[in-house]
């Protein structure tokens, strides 16, 4: 920045003598731009690879290509459909009934970690027999098709005990 006066002239002379210049070389700018562009491309590639590895893109392509087949199977990749969720029985919890059936006399929801109280509405998973609050297990089953405790598929019928 040039201004008028003897002090400004002396400062300009010192800068010129010292060789200090604030002008950036074009090559440095191009290298920085190339590096930033490569970083952005790499980030996008990693995101797409993770999406394909998790099956999101494959599931969307299958649903678009044969939507009738996906709808007829009744299962999605992410969780249970609403019809299967509503088919799981709900009941009012009774502490005395659990103790009479050989249980400990109390139950705990493994999702919210709260003790289930008498009269609360619970779901009993048919595949494994685990018990949860309706709100807790419904939220879980919308995104996972398995029991949160034993990871057994909720859509499968209960296995016979030998």
Question: Describe it for me?
Answer:
With 162 residues, the chain is mainly alpha-helical. The chain is 50% helix and 9% strand. The chain has seven helices and five strands. The strands form two sheets. A three-stranded antiparallel sheet has the order 1-4-5. 7% of the residues are buried. Mean pLDDT is 76; it is low at 65-76. One of its GO terms (molecular function) is zinc ion binding. Its EC number is 2.3.2.27. It catalyses: S-ubiquitinyl-[E2 ubiquitin-conjugating enzyme]-L-cysteine + [acceptor protein]-L-lysine = [E2 ubiquitin-conjugating enzyme]-L-cysteine + N(6)-ubiquitinyl-[acceptor protein]-L-lysine. Keywords: Membrane, Metal-binding, Transmembrane, Transmembrane helix, Zinc, Zinc-finger. It holds the Pfam family zf-RING_2.
Explain briefly what this protein structure is.
The chain has helices at 6-18, 26-54, 56-65, 67-73, 82-87, 95-100, 134-143; strands spanning 90-92, 107-108, 115-116, 121-124, 131-133.
Number of E-state strands? 5
What is the beta-strand fraction?
Answer: 5-15%
Counted by DSSP, the helix tally is: 7
Please tell me how large the radius of gyration is: 33 Å
Mean pLDDT: 76
Q: Please describe the biggest sheet, giving its number of strands, its sense, and whether it closes into a barrel.
A: 3 strands, antiparallel
Could you list the spans in which at least 5 consecutive residues all have pLDDT below 50? 65-76
The helix/strand order is HHHHHEHEEEEH
* SS-based class: mainly alpha
Give the CA-CA distance, first to last residue.
Answer: 91 Å
Catalytic activity: S-ubiquitinyl-[E2 ubiquitin-conjugating enzyme]-L-cysteine + [acceptor protein]-L-lysine = [E2 ubiquitin-conjugating enzyme]-L-cysteine + N(6)-ubiquitinyl-[acceptor protein]-L-lysine
Family: Belongs to the RING-type zinc finger family. ATL subfamily.
Organism: Urochloa decumbens
Keywords: Membrane, Metal-binding, Transmembrane, Transmembrane helix, Zinc, Zinc-finger
């Amino acid at each position: 920045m040039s201004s008028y006066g003897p002090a400004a002239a002396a400062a300009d002379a010192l800068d010129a003598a010292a060789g200090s210049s604030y002008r950036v070389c074009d090559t440095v700018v191009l290298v920085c731009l190339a590096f930033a562009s490569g970083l952005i491309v790499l980030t996008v590639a990693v995101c797409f690879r993770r999406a394909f590895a998790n099956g999101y893109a494959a599931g969307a392509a299958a649903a678009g290509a044969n939507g009738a087949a996906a709808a007829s199977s009744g299962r999605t990749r992410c969780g249970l459909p609403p019809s299967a969720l509503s088919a799981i029985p709900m009941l009012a919890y009774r502490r005395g009934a659990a103790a009479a059936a050989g249980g400990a006399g109390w139950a705990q929801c493994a999702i919210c970690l709260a003790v289930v109280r008498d009269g609360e509405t619970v779901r009993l998973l048919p595949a494994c027999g685990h018990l949860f609050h309706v709100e807790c297990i419904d939220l879980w089953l919308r995104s996972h098709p398995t029991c949160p405790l034993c990871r057994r598929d909720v859509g499968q019928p209960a296995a016979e005990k030998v």
